[in-house]
Protein: ADP-ribose pyrophosphatase
Amino acid sequence: MKKDIETLASRTVYKNKWLTVREDKIVRESGKEGIYGVVEKPDFAIILPVHKDTIYLVEQYRYTIGSRQLELPQGAWEDNPKADPCELAKGELKEETGMLADEMIYVGFQYLAYGFCNQGYHIYLAKGLTQGKQSLDVEEEDLKIVPMPLQKFHEKVVGGEIKDASTCNAYGLAKLKGLL
Structure:
C-alpha cells in the first residue's frame, strides 16, 4: 500500500536513554520533497488511582516549564519499552505513590502529540488501593502524593488549573466511558 508520504532517508540527530530525535528526508504524494523531525519515545502508562471519592495525584517540578504541577501518576520503562502495559501501569503506580491496586481497569490508548512524536499512552483506572512505600527514581525525588476529592479534581481540570494534557485526557475518557 502506498503511503501519503514516503521516507527517502533518515538520520538520528540526538539520542539519550529517554528519547531519540531523528530527521527524515521525505517525499510527498505530489513529488515535493521536505524534511520531517520526529521524536521517538517509548509508550507510557497513566493511572487514575481512585478510592471512594478520592483521586491520588502526584505533584512534581517540571523543569521544561519551570513550575510544580499536579498530574496523574505516569511513566515509561525506558529499559523495557515493550513491557506489558498493565504491568507498566502497576509498576508506575507503586513507584510513584507506593500504592497497590486490586483492580486495574483498562480505559484506552491515546497518542500524546503525533504531529511530532510517536509516543502513546495506555490509560488505567486503579481501584482497591492499599498504601505501601514509594520507590522513586532520582528524577522524581521531589514528587509528592496529593490526595484530592474527585469533585475538586474535576473543578481543577475544568478550571484549567491542571495543565497536563494526558492527565486531563485520561480523566475525560474515563468519565465519558462512565468509569468515574
Q: What stands out?
A: The radius of gyration is 18 Å.
